[in-house]
Structure formats: structure tokens, C-alpha cells
Amino acid sequence: MKYRLVALDLDGTLLDSSLQIRHRTIDALQRVREQGVQVMIVTGRHHTAARAYWHQLGLELPAICCNGTYVYDFRQRRPLAGNPLTQKEAQELLAIVREHPVHVGVYVDEAMTYETDAPHLAGMRRWGATLPESVRPRVEPVASFDRLIDEAAAIWKFLLASDDPAALTACEQAIGGHPGFTCVRSSRARADVSRAGNSKGQRLAEYIAQQGIRPQEVIAFGDQDNDREMLKLAGLGVAMGNSHAEVRECADWVTGTNDSDGIAEVLHRFVLTAG
Fold it and tell me: For this structure, is 73 an active site residue?
């Protein structure tokens, strides 16, 4: 099979535990692009938190962001296709999550926002401080989510975070009773909520159909529940070694962890040395 597109999740997949891309991975991605294979970021992140990696790899394709909520074109500096929450939906979702002891972030327009600070935001700020201002992620406090929702042009998703598994599960269950929302885990302690129907797999399927690329011509890499649909879609779905069992079961191949050269090894095996 000749592959035409490599789709890459970021956290836990393309990025190692230090939020860096491994040198062998960079080299392998450059080499597959030289062979005419396109490379695309497909992430749960807001586009301002993916921009630095897009530039580092010198990519050309837009990125799929916030778990398929929208496609962002970094060259034109604007979102393309998208399915954000309506103001009414965001207000209903805010009312639900405020009944639970979880930290809430709301991703809008050009920023990731929060009403109260939390330890997990410190890591994002530290990483951002190491970057040039032009590619730095925007993580901003707001006085009121209610006012933010009223004024935002696009409400991409809510991020829920808690180190208390029971609290996060209870909030997910409450959200699950609403047909207008999709809730999916992006890590052990985080869940993403967007408008119903949004997913990495669905948005990637739409994108490749527009480009005339068949699913079997795609290699996708991921490690979390929000990657499962994408791994099933791809002709070669690759789960990272740090994935849990349910993710590995969706994959065609399991490679090394994100702290290994697992991505490079797959690309060498199935693209660079394929006859």
C-alpha cells in the first residue's frame, strides 16, 4: 500500500514527556514528505497550542484542532471548516460543569481561558515562555465565563480537569445525559467536551474525502480515547506503547512509547523502505 497522508496526535504521541519532538521523528517526517507523503497534525489542542510544532516541522497542511471541532489554516491564520458550540449550548454546558468540583477551561476564538488557576496550567505557561512570542500559546484568565460566552465569536470546546477520578467521572456522566455534547478523555485526568458529532476521526474523514485521499492511504498515530476513531479510520492505525488497552485494541499496529523512536520506526518500516 502506498500511503499519502500521516496524521499525528500531539500529546503522548508526537511529543515526548518533555513536550519535545524527537530528532529521529523529525528526520523521518521530513523524509516521508520528500517522497510526497503529506503530514497533518490532528490534536485535541487549541490551534495556538499547536502552532509551534506546525512551524517546527515546516508543515503545509492545516491542522485539525480541539478533537475535530475545526480545521485551522496557519498560513491564512484563520479557521476553516468548524462546528463550535452555540452560545445556548455553551451556557447549558457551563451550568452542568459548575455543579461538579472540576477545573474548567473554555477554548474560544484565539485563546484558552480560565476563571481560576490550576496546577496543570503552569506547565503550559512554562513551555510557552520558552517559545518566540509569535508561536506562543495564549492561555488567559477571564473574570467570567458567562460574559466570555456572550462575547466570543467561536466556542470550540470545554476542558475539564481533576485529579479526583470520581469527580471527573461524575461530571462526564452528567454531560452524557445531554444529546448536544460529545465528551471524551484526552488523558487520565482530563476530558474534552465539544458539540455533538465532533471527533478527530470524523473531521479527518471529511478532510481526506475533500482531498481525494482514501482512508486506506492514511497512517494515523495516537494514544488516547480521543484518537480511537481516527485509528479505526486509517488504513494503518498505530497506537503508541503508552496507550491503554482499549486504544491498542483499535489499532493495526502498536509501536514504542512517545519517549522512544516508535513513530520513526513505523515510518521507516511502512513508508521509507516499502517496495
Answer: no
Last residue of one domain, picked from the residues 140, 164, 195: 195
112 and 242 fall within a common domain: no
Q: What is the CATH number of the domain that holds 183?
A: 3.30.1240.10
pLDDT tens per residue across span 79-137: 998 999 999 999 999 999 999 999 999 999 999 999 999 988 988 899 999 999 999 99
8 Å CB contact between 85 and 107: no
pLDDT band of 1, cuts 50, 70, 90: confident
pLDDT at 123: 87
The pLDDT of residue 274 is: 66
CA–CA distance, 126 with 84 (Å, rounded to integer): 28
Helix-helix angle 87-97:165-176, to 10 degrees:
140
In whole angstroms, what is the distance from residue 149 CA to residue 198 CA? 19
The domain total for the chain is 2
Q: What CATH code is carried by the domain that includes residue 240?
A: 3.40.50.1000
Question: What does residue 13 show for φ and ψ, rounded to 5 degrees?
Answer: -130, -85
The active-site residue out of 9, 192, 225, 227 is 9
